[in-house]
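Human: If only I could read C-alpha cells as easily as an amino acid sequence. Underneath my words sits a plain record pairing an amino acid chain with its C-alpha cells. Take your time, and here it is.
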Amino acid sequence: MPAQKQIKNALVSVYYKDGLDDILSLLAKEGVRFFSTGGTQNFIESLGFNCTSVESLTSYPPILGGRVKTLHPKIFGGILARRDISSDLAQLDEYQIPEMDLVIVDLYPFEETLVSGASESEIIEKIDIGGISLIRAAAKNFNDVLVVASQNQYVALADLLKEQGARSTKEERKWFAREAFATTSSYDTSIFTYFDGGENSVFRSAINDTKNLRYGENPHQKGQFFGKFDEAFEQLQGKEISYNNLLDIDAACQLIEEFSETTFAILKHNNACGIASRDSVLESWQLALAADPISAFGGVLITNGVVDKAAAEEINTIFFEIIIAPDYHTDALEVLMQKKNRIILIQKPFEQSSVQFRSVLNGVLLQDKDFSVQGVSDLNNITKKQATEAELEDLVFANKLVKSTKSNAIILVKNKQLLASGVGQTSRVDALNQAIDKAGNFGFKLEGAVMASDAFFPFPDCVEIACKAGIVAVVQPGGSIKDQLSIDYCDQHGLAMAMTGVRHFKH
C-alpha cells in the first residue's frame, strides 16, 4: 500500500464557500487544525470549529485594503518546507512556522467580473495575487502538501477524506497538483486575454471542461472535446456524441445561422447535401431531402423551426444520426424517439467564438471566423442583364450556402432550394460539372436556376458551361484580372452576373 502523509494543519482561504462545510467537518473530526483569514475564518468559526487567524501567525494585519494578507514567510515557509530536508525543518523550528499539510484556496472571480461589465478598476482588483501564489507553492511541494484550488475538486477531496481519513498518498497529491496548475494556467490565460485586447500577440487558449471521446476522426485516433457542450445543446436521447458528430454539428449550426426564414438542412461530412427555405418545417424538409436522398442517409439534420408531428413522421422514414432544432412538439418527439440510438438535440442560444484555429506543421493557424454575409444590396450587378427579384433572392441563398461548402465549391439553386452542389474539387470547372451531373441524376431541370461560386472565375469557361446548362444568373466575388472575359460572355448570352467583392474559401 502506498505511503500516506497525515494532514495536521490546513490553510483555508476561499471566495466560494458552497460545499466547504462538509469538508471542514470531515477534517475537524480528524483533529486537523485550521488557519484562515477574514471571511473564511468567520465562516469556519460559525460552524463551531476553532480557527487560528493568519494575522496572529504572521503578526501582521491585512494591509493595502486587503491586497496583502498571506504573502509572508510564516505562511509560505510552512507550505514550501521540504519535510525530508533537515535544514528546512530546522528553519521552521527556528522561526516557529507550522507545517501546512493541506491548502484549500480558490481565486477571485476575474472572468465573472469581466463579463459583468464592471469598470477597469473593478476588474483589476479581481486579479488574485495571494491566492494564486499559495496554490502554486502548495502544488510545487506536492511531495508533502495537498492542494485544492477550486470548488471543482471538493468532491474528490471529500471522497478521499471519507475513504481514508486525513491522509493522502503522493500519487493523490500529484493529481491535485495537476488540477491546481490547470486552474492557475486557465486563470492567467483569462487575464492575459483581457490585457491583450484581441490583438492575439501570442497564442493562448485554456478550456477546463474536457470530454474523452470514443475515438477521433478514425478508430485508431484518440479524440477529446474541450468545451461546455451542455451550454449549447440539450441532448434528449441517443448515443454518445462522437468526434465526427461534433464536426458535423458545428458545420450545421454555422450554416443554419445564416437563415432567418424557416429552413431545413441536411449535412454529410460538414457539407450540405440538401437545404431549402419554405413557410413550414415539413415543406422545407421535403425539398431539402429531394436534393440528394442518397447522401441524406446517415446525415445530420438541422432546422431553425420547431419540429411538429407532421414533419417528424416524414423525417422518421429515413435513417439519420442527428437532428437539431430549437424545439419539438411533444407528439413529434414521440415519433422521433422510436429509434433509441438517434441523437436528438435542442439547440440553445449560445455565443460562438469569434476566432478559429487549427494546428499546422509545428505551430497554430488562427483567423477571424467568416461572419461576412452578403444581402441583395451587396450584389453588384456588372452585366447588361439585371437579375429579377426572385433571382436575386436565390443568389443570396446560394451565396450563403457556398460560404459553408468546402472549396472549390459551386452551388446551384432555384426557388430557395439547393438543386446540387460541387464540393471540394481541385478545379472549379470540375465542381460545376459535378453539380450539373448531380442535378440531372436527381431529375432537376436547371433552366431558370442560379449559380454561386466561392471564388472568382479566372476564365469564362464556368459561365459558358453554366449558360449551356440553363443557368440564368451567377454570383461570385470577382477579382480576377480576367473578370471581363466572364462579363463579356454573360453579356453576349443574356446571363445576369453579380459580384460581391468577398471571397468565401473554406478548407
Remarks:
- Residues 274 and 293 are 8 Å apart (CA to CA).
